[in-house]
Amino acid sequence: MIETKNIDFYYGNFHALKNISMRMEKNTVTAFIGPSGCGKSTFLRLFNRMNDLIDGTRFTGECAIAGRDIYHKSFPVDELRKKVGMVFQKPNPFPKSIFENVAYGLRVNSMGDKSFIVAKVEASLKAAALWEEVKDKLKKSAFELSGGQQQRLCIARALAVSPSILLMDEPASALDPISTSKIEELIYSLKEKYTIIIVTHNMQQAKRVSDKTGFFMLGELVEYNDTKKMFLSPEKEQTQNYITGRFG
Amino acid sequence: MNRKTKQKIAFTAFRILGLWVVAVLFWILGFIVYNGIGVINWEFLTTAPTDGMTAGGILPAIVGTLYLVAGSMLFAVPFGVMSAIYMNEYAGKGWFVKFIRVMTNNLSGIPSIVLGLFGMALFVNTLGFGDSILAGSLTLGLLILPLIIRTTEEALKAIPDTYRTGSYALGAGKLQTILRIILPMAFPNIITGLILSIGRVSGETAPILFTVAAYFLPKLPTSIFDQVMALPYHLYVIATSGTDIEASRPIAYGTALVLIVIVLLMNMLATLLRRYLGGKVKANT
Fold this sequence. Notes:
The structure holds two protein chains of two kinds. Chain A is α/β, with parallel strands linked by helices. Chain A has ten helices and ten strands. Chain A starts with a strand and ends in a 5-residue tail after the last helix. The mean pLDDT of chain A is 92. Chain B has two domains: 3-38; 40-281, Orthogonal Bundle (MetI-like fold). The interface between A and B is medium-sized, with 29 and 26 residues.
C-alpha cells in the first residue's frame, strides 16, 4: 500500500538516496536498518513529506500511498499527515496537559465536537497502552510523565487523528529497556490496525517487531526481505556483516 | 607564586569587582531613598504641584508616565512580536531577513534625542498629532521596538524545532503551530523583553521632550491628544530650570524615588507573570 519507485533524494549536492524502489504492505511492520547517515530516516520522512520542511532538499521518482501520488498538487499535505502519523526519536510532547496533547491533532484539524474529542482521547490513550497510568491526571502537564510514558503519549497523539500508517523514527532509542519493551509490545498490538514503518539502530528490535526489514547503506537499499529470512540467511554479504555487528 | 595563591587572588579580585557593582547600586538607591523619603506621603502621590512646583504633589507626572508606558507598549509589543515572528518563523535565511536584522540593530543605536527630534518631525508636525500622548507613545515605541524584536526573536529561536515538527506531523499548519505551541512557549522570555522595555520607557527623557512632555500641567489628560507631565522630565525640570531650584530639591528626590519604585513594581509584576507562565510551559527535561 506504500510504494516508491526509483527515488533519488538530494540534500543540496549530497546524493542521499539512490534509486530506491520499495513496496510495503498493509498491516505489516517494516523495519529500516543501517548505519548512521545511510538515508533510512530521510526515506521515512518522505512518506509524510517532512522533508519538505528542510531547505535545499529535492527528489525524483514516485511515492504513492494507496495508489495516490502523495506529492501531487491535489493531495493536501495536512490531509497526508493525518493519514500518516509520526513518532520521533526523542519524545516531544507539547507543553500542555496530557489531555490537550492527545486532543491537539483533533483541534487543529477541527475534527469533531467536545464529546467526540473526549472519547477519542480516551480511545487513543488506551490504544497506546497509557490510559491506566494517566486516567486520573489528564489535566497534569505532559512533562510530569516519564520518558517512556511521554513516548507512548506521543504515539497516542499520533493515533488520535485516525491515521492508517505510523512512521517511527528510532522511537525507543532514548528510552530505558523496560520502556523500550513496552513500546515494542505496543507496536506489535498496533499492527492489526496500522501499517507501521520503524527506523531502528537496534538489530534485536528489528528482529522482534518487524515482518519485513530493509537494510540501507550509503543511500542504497542493499537488501529488503522477510525479517526472519534476513536475519537467518541474508542474501548479501554486506547485510551479513552488518547484522552480525562486524561494522556499523 | 604558586597556582593556588594565584587562583585565590583572581577569585578575590573578581569578587570585589562583583560586589562593587552591587555597592554602587545600593549607594544610589540609598542616596535617593534617604533624600527623597521625607516628602513621600499620600498627598505627594495624589495632588498636582503647586506654588511654582516648589510644593504639592506629582500626580500628573505619575499618571503621565503610566500612560506613556502603556501607550508605547500598546504600539511596540504587537509590532515587535509580529516582526520577530515573521523574521524567525517565516522569512527563512535569505539576505532580506539579514537586512531587516541589521536595520533593527541600527535602529537601537540611534541616540534617543535624535529619535525625539524625528518623533517631533513625523508625529507632532507631519502627521499633526501635536504634542500629545499619542506622539510621545509612538516615539517611545520606536525606541523600544528593536529591544522587543530582538528578545522575541531570541525567545523563538530558543524553542527546539522538535516542537514545530511534532505539530506539523499532526497536520497542523504554520499559523496554528505558532499560535498554539510556539508563542505560549516563548512567552516567558518575551516578557523579559517587556520588563527591560518598561524600565527604558519610564526613564527616558529625550524622546518625550519634544513630543509630549509638559513643563507644568496640573490637570490630568482626558484624551490621547493631550499633553502630559512625565516623571523623568519633571525631575529634569525641577532640578535644573524650575522656579526655585533650592526649594524644590526635596521634591526632586521624591520624584526620583517614585520613578524608581514604579519601575521596580512593574518589573516585579512582570517577573511574577513570567514565573507563573514559565511554570506552566517550562521546557521538557
